[in-house]
Write a structure and sequence with these properties.
Layout (H helix, E strand, L loop, with lengths): L2 E3 L4 E3 L21 E5 L8 E4 L7 E4 L11 H13 L3 E6 L5 H4 L2 E4 L2 E4 L2 H6 L6 E7 L12 H16 L2 E6 L13 E7 L11 H8 L3 H4 L10 E6 L2 E5 L18 E6 L2 E6 L2 H10 L8 E3 L11 H7 L3 E4 L10 H8 L3 E4 L3 E2 L12 E3 L3 E5 L5 E4 L2 E4 L3 H4 L12 H7 L3
Parallel strand pairs: 5-6, 6-9, 9-10, 13-16, 16-17, 17-18, 18-20
Antiparallel strand pairs: 1-2, 2-19, 3-4, 3-21, 4-5, 7-8, 11-12, 12-13, 14-15, 21-22, 22-23
Helix pairs in contact: 7-8
Length: 418
């Protein structure tokens, strides 16, 4: 039976409530392989990746603030980074897209300005921190999209951060493997940015605008559509993360998924563009094998994300939802879809309005901070203290493995004890 918390807004599973303020112990020496942490920040997002020894190069993807929270996530993350890597410094920080739950912003109050998320990390004089390289999608996409307040704040702030010595440089990520370096043996490939999958080709939004000239003039593309998506590979271990990439709601039988959806918020119209479906088609068209061990679920498990075509392509073993129970996230349909191919871990909580009886999917649980340690060479990994094999592409398809076993990775999940 689930426990009700936070004034009835969030449901968490018994024995695994997300304790955002609690420290998570880091016992023993640093791992020699790859280390990944999905932090529990309520309805906000942040993950840390530490490359193999001896370099142990670092990459943080996002650091947002919960709209209903205390705007102090950055303080907790500074402490966690120091506990994990031994210093308050990152080699690389990637902003997946310009929304406050992924990068924070500066909240203006009558008594002054209160920076949160990345802005707090870079500006709080009581929290010393340094980022060597800040990576993001750049400043393009207008007039198809509309500049957000966090984006505008970044444009004003980053030169100041460089001058203060807290930031080394700001760079736009590029498609391919040339933007992010996590050391020998690790490949980080950017597969989508600004709705584009291949250099020199139009983005999904540009193609739609060509056929519908008034679409984005009347309803600008949502910032989520421009999210940076990447695939991390270390040996046979693979992880996909795509910020808040948008897909489409499940269509009626016999109908194709919608290419876009126009939604109205107060008096403003916004277009949600199906980027996930074309991304899956692009990867398939280029003959890309895509079975991954871990899928960080797009857009917190919203109703228009994690479309079937993308999930069929990824076929993850574990799916991670970064959410705290607001906006109805994660919705049951998306959790159930991913539970058919993976075990589901949720960082902070589930929404009562979507789950009135609590979390009813056996393969899913609320886990708090999620830890993944990938062994040297990438043939096995431990997630939440459970060890699993990482499979080659042939083994994922059921071909004989190096030891002759020949079993699909999904079989390991199905056969695992509860």
């Amino acid at each position: 039976m689930a426990l009700l918390a936070a004034a009835g807004l969030v449901l968490v599973a018994p024995g695994c409530a997300a304790r955002r303020g609690d420290a998570v112990r880091d016992a023993g020496p640093p791992p020699a392989g790859l280390e990944i942490r999905f932090f529990s920040l309520g309805q906000a997002d942040s993950m840390l990746i530490v490359g193999p020894a001896p370099e142990r190069r670092t990459l943080m993807i996002d650091l947002g603030e919960d709209r209903w929270g205390d705007r102090r996530n950055y303080e907790r993350i500074a402490r966690r980074v120091e506990a994990i890597v031994g210093e308050r410094r990152l080699d690389q920080f990637l902003i997946s897209h310009y929304h406050a739950d992924h990068m924070g912003d500066v909240d203006v109050k009558p008594d002054g300005k209160r920076p949160g998320g990345l802005f707090g990390l870079m500006e709080d004089p009581l929290v010393p921190f340094r980022i060597d390289r800040l990576l993001d999608r750049g400043d393009a996409a207008e007039p198809i999209g509309k500049r957000t307040r966090p984006h505008q704040g970044l444009l004003e702030a980053w030169p100041r951060w460089v001058e203060s010595g807290r930031l080394g440089s700001r760079e736009a990520v590029r498609l391919g493997t040339g933007s992010i370096d996590l050391g020998a043996g690790v490949t980080v490939e950017v597969v989508a940015v600004d709705g584009r999958f291949e250099e020199g080709k139009p983005s999904v939004m540009e193609a739609l605008a060509g056929a519908n000239p008034d679409l984005y003039r009347e309803a600008p593309a949502n910032e989520n559509d421009f999210s940076v998506a990447l695939i991390l590979r270390y040996g046979e271990f693979e992880l996909f993360t795509g910020g808040d990439l948008t897909g489409a709601e499940t269509p009626a039988d016999g109908q194709a998924p919608a290419a876009f959806t126009v939604r109205t918020f107060t008096d403003e119209k916004v277009t949600y563009t199906n980027v996930e479906g074309p991304l899956a088609a692009s990867l398939e068209g280029r003959g890309r094998e895509m079975d991954v061990e871990v899928y960080r679920a797009d857009h917190h498990g919203s109703s228009h994300s994690s479309v079937s075509t993308l999930i069929d392509r990824l076929d993850p073993e574990f799916s991670v939802f970064s959410c705290g129970g607001q906006y109805g996230h994660p919705i049951p349909e998306v959790v159930e879809r991913l539970a058919r191919t993976s075990r589901v871990l949720i960082t902070s909580g589930i929404a009562k309005k979507s789950w009135p009886a609590g979390l009813t999917v056996p393969e899913a649980r609320v886990a708090g901070e999620i830890s993944i340690l990938v062994e040297p060479g990438g043939r096995a990994y431990t997630i939440q203290e459970e060890r699993h094999s990482a499979f080659t592409d042939d083994e994922e398809r059921g071909a004989p493995s190096s030891d002759g076993a020949g079993r699909d990775a999904g079989a390991e999940r199905r056969d695992a004890p509860p």
